[in-house]
Amino acid sequence: MRFSNPSIQKIWGLFCPSFPMAGRLLLLGLFSLPAWAEETPETQTSETETQEAQNPKATAVEQQMLKPVVVTAAPMDEPLTVVTDAKAPRQPIPAHDGADHLKTIPGFSIIRKGGSDGDPVFRGMAGSRLNILSNGEVILGGCGGRMDPPTAYIFPGSYDSITLLKGPQSVIWGPGSSAGTVLFEREFRPYEQSGYRLFGGLMFGSFGRNDQIVDAEMGDPSYDMRLIGTRSSMDDYLDGNGNRVHSSYMRWSIGTVLGFMPDENTRLELSASLSDGKAAYADRMMDGSKFARENLSLRFEKKKISALIEKMEAHAYYNYVDHVMDNYSLREQPGSKSVNNPDRRTTGFRLASNLHLSALSLLKVGFDQQSNWHRFRSGNDLNYRSQTRLADATFHDHGLFAEWTQTLSAESGLIAGLRVDFWKAKDQRTGVSTSGETRRDILPSGFVRYEHDFGANSLVVGLGHNERFPDFWEAISQNKQSETSNSAFKVRSEKNTQLDVGAIYRVHPKLRLSASVFVSWLKDYILIDNSRALKDASLVRNVNALTFGGEVGAAFAFARHWSLNANLAYVHGNNLTDSTPLAQMPPFDSRFTLEYDDGTWLFGALARLVAAQNRFDKNKGSIAGQDIGATPGFGVFSLNAGYRLRKNLLLLVGVDNLFNKTYAEAISRSGSMVLGYDQTRRINEPGRSFWLKLDLKL
């Protein structure tokens, strides 16, 4: 490929050898934009007005995506709800997976294991306490040691929005949700006529960071087709002391969505995707050499069926994860080579309907089901593929739900929900006291919430109760034991009763305050206790616990194009049974940002200040990690700047950890001895990192 501009030719020659084909095509598109990509402001305004008249909701989403904003701390859009653009650049620049993308939302922490696949923690709650859905689907990893949490199979740039629903304040998204629900969603935006949409992104950074994404779509009023491809890779990073951390990774995904609309109120959608990759881990003796996922999904939606039935939807899906971990592919291994190869098949179905009982009453009712089958095999580098996979556990859940919304006045409303889950699980392991046993539980959940608007201000008060069935990692994996036997299969279900209060208050048109606080009573909290001497096993216990805390934010537009933002998050937990702090509670975390954006140029400065954590319970915690000890506080500063090169073409540069601070998060995993690397007590965060990002949207 040749370009007439010598500078562009030089750039192409420099980067082309290191780019996959998708990246090369995107670069070609960026530097070969036709003249229509540089329309005048008058033309843009006219188009916007037309689109607003035709499809206000879709236009609002598109306008948000066009804003050249780097997200540093996603704010609450409504009390107890956070919605963020999945494609928007953010700082610190995230890895390829869903967990690192969530860490910009106040209240979230990430348990670091290496360069990728960290475990997300919200308000100190991890694992299945946080319900994470990919386009309404459950993804469950295979590794018994949480090498691949659900977010490891989520590529954020391939989605349109990320929504956090705080607390047990919804029943329509499946079981669990004791801490909250996270929805990674792709949005359907209908076409008024034949057309296409394109989003592309390139990113380069320190430590060999190299990302590409292409999201291409075309359609007309009767059909649409979407193709999404992502790739992300990075070498080992250096911490602030210049020590190399075993943390390299490479991931890719490709997916397609086909939609058919026989009329404006009916849609049938078929989607499929594949992904794979590899990742090095600094917290254990094995790395992930394969993260293969297959997905199939079928959806049907019908709107405006009758005066009573506003909408009906059906959704069936299939997810299969084939995960390989070994001790030789990504690290030196002078001894014997070993391989573990778990896999998991997850299927699900959901049928729901929105019923307009009256002009002021809406009832959402439905049924959902999910099943998963876990198997395992192991061996060495030569024979593991020939080994027979042995099933060790199956889980089935059938849930019935109803969620009622009642408008009380123009300013207030009442929302209430009830859910019942029918669980069945079978222990298929051998050599444990519960071999071949089946357990069944009927678990209720529900909530009631009052919402009130005071003009531009909002107040929400909700009381929720959630009962959570023990997950695979608590009941089955890695030799979990109870206090009375060599199996934790019969550990009691966990019950959470929580009060949530949220408010948004606009003191002035330029000053906005928000707050979300909670108090949670946890009965039969499932604690992973490694403080007692058990050979090659973890003790699983039920305890009672109390947690409280929340998030507070402020945004002040103090001058034209300038704004100041502050976000504070805190959680406090007590283990009432043991009279100790509840383990794995992150410390007080604050973020302060200064932002400038005039529509062409933008600038951002981020200061993250985290307090010391002296409340811990050593060797206790959750399936995601255990407390190690006290941690000092730290402060990290980052900068970013950007320039809109053309309409819908944005160039961003940034530096994270500007002063090269050496630090580790309080809930980081402990470092393991990896040949050729310095072992640290905790896995340190990356040192100073530079990055450059180029985004295109047509």
Give the beta-strand count: 38
| Terminal CA distance | 23 Å
Alpha plus pi helix count: 6
Q: Identify the overall geometry.
A: globular
Q: How would you characterize the largest beta sheet? A: 22 strands, antiparallel, barrel
**Low-pLDDT ranges:** 1-66
- Judged by helices, strands and strand pairing, the structural class is mainly beta
Radius of gyration: 25 Å
| Helix content class | under 10%
What value does the average pLDDT take?
A: 89
User: How much β-strand is present in the residues?
Assistant: over 45%
List keywords for this structure.
single chain; 698 residues; mainly beta; 6-stranded mixed sheet; 38 strands
Explained architecture:
With 698 residues, the protein is mainly beta. The strands form four sheets. It has a 22-stranded antiparallel beta barrel. Helix 3 packs antiparallel against helix 4. The longest helix is centred in the N-terminal third of the chain and has 14 residues, at 41-54. The protein is globular. The relative contact order is 0.13. Residues 1-66 have low confidence and may be disordered.
Give the topology.
Blueprint: H1 6-15, H2 21-30, H3 41-54, H4 56-66, E1 76-78, E2 81-85, H5 98-102, E3 108-111, E4 119-122, E5 130-134, E6 137-138, E7 161-166, E8 180-185, E9 195-205, E10 209-220, E11 223-234, E12 237-238, E13 244-245, E14 249-263, E15 266-279, E16 287-303, E17 309-326, E18 339-340, E19 343-358, E20 361-376, E21 378-379, E22 390-407, E23 412-427, E24 438-454, E25 457-468, H6 472-475, E26 480-481, E27 494-508, E28 511-529, E29 538-559, E30 562-575, E31 580-581, E32 589-597, E33 601-610, E34 620-622, E35 625-626, E36 634-646, E37 649-656, E38 689-697
Parallel strand pairs: 5-8, 26-29
Antiparallel strand pairs: 1-2, 2-7, 3-4, 5-6, 7-8, 9-10, 9-38, 10-11, 11-14, 12-13, 14-15, 15-16, 16-17, 17-18, 17-19, 18-21, 19-20, 20-22, 22-23, 23-24, 24-25, 25-27, 27-28, 28-29, 28-34, 29-30, 30-31, 30-32, 32-33, 33-36, 34-35, 36-37, 37-38
